[in-house]
């Protein structure tokens, strides 16, 4: 939840962008998954699922972190101007990569900026809700879906900000 002065300005947009990069890196899309399965001859059967836990781990270790800050929010690392373009993997590169990456990230920045400016969004988990490492909002895999979602759908209360 963002509190206090909500005027984002240019610095706020940069921070919003880098926070988006951080979140998408941790919970990335799987555009390369089918190639990986075929390349490594991972057996699959019709109607059966692939193991996804390792894929999530790949997204979290692709960008090296010291062990003591691995899961911490560090959006400032994406503010550097000279990092290598292949250091950010969620949209991938190459023939099956996402050609709409810039449009998707621009839409995400715009949506988040408007939401943060106009809305107050607070978690609405029930008391006693499941926790993982002390957090009620953790990544959970839903049966029959390839991508993960926040636990219990991440219930929230949304209010208009009083400006």
Question: In words, what does this structure look like?
Answer:
- It contains four helices and four strands.
- The protein is globular.
- It has a domain of 112 residues.
- The chain is α+β, with helices and mostly antiparallel strands.
- The strands form two sheets. A two-stranded antiparallel ribbon has the order 1-4.
- The longest helix has 18 residues.
- 1% of the residues are buried.
- The N terminus is likely disordered.
- β2 and β3 form a beta hairpin.
Please tell me how large the radius of gyration is: 18 Å
Q: What value does the average pLDDT take?
A: 66
Helix content: 25-40%
Number of helices: 4
Cα(first) to Cα(last) distance is 15 Å
Q: Which sheet architecture does the biggest sheet show?
A: 2 strands, antiparallel
Strands of the biggest beta sheet: in what spatial order?
A: 1-4
Overall shape = globular
Poorly predicted segments? 1-5, 31-36
* Series of H and E elements: HHHHEEEE
Structural class: alpha+beta
Determine the strand fraction and express it as a percent band: 5-15%
Number of strand segments = 4
Properties at a glance:
163 residues, 4 helices, globular, disordered N terminus, oxidoreductase, metal-binding, membrane, Cytochrome_P450_Monoox, Cyt_P450
What's the helix and strand layout?
Elements: H1 9-26, H2 33-39, H3 53-61, H4 101-118, E1 119-123, E2 139-141, E3 148-150, E4 156-160
Antiparallel strand pairs: 1-4, 2-3
Quick rundown:
This protein has 163 residues and is α+β, with helices and mostly antiparallel strands. The protein is built from 4 helices and 4 strands; from the N terminus they run H-H-H-H-E-E-E-E. A two-stranded antiparallel ribbon has the order 1-4. A two-stranded antiparallel sheet has the order 2-3.
